[in-house]
Amino acid sequence: MFSMHTHTCGELRREDVGKTVTLTGWVWHRRDHGGLIFVDLRDREGLTQLQFDPDLCDEECFRTAETIRPEWPVKVVGRVQPRIEGQANDRLATGAIEVIVSEIVVLNTSKTPPFPIEDDMDTADDIRLRYRYLDIRRPSMMANLRLRSDFSFAIRQALHDELFCEVETPALFKSTPEGARDFLVPSRTQPGHFYALPQSPQLLKQLLMVGGVERYYQVAKCFRDEDLRADRQPEFTQVDVEMSFVEQDDVMNCLESVLSKAFAKVGVEMSLPLRRISYWDAMDTYGSDKPDTRLGMELHDVTNLFGDSQFKLFSSAAADPDTYIKAINAKGAGTWARAKIDKLSGVAAEFGAKGLAYVAFNEDGSVKGPIAKFFSDAEMDALRAEMAVEPGDLVLFAVDSRLKADEIMGGMRNHMADALGIEREGHDFLWVVDFPLFHWDEERGGYASEHQPFTQPEESQIDLLDSDPLAVGSHTYDFVMDGFEAGGGGMRIHDAELQMRILKMLGFDEEGAKEQFGFLMEALEFGAPPMGGFALGLDRVCMLLAGADSIREVMAFPKTTSGSDLMSAAPSPVSDRQLEEVSLKTISHE
Ligand code: ASP
Question: Is the CB–ligand 1 distance for residue 537 below 6 Å?
Answer without folding.
Answer: no
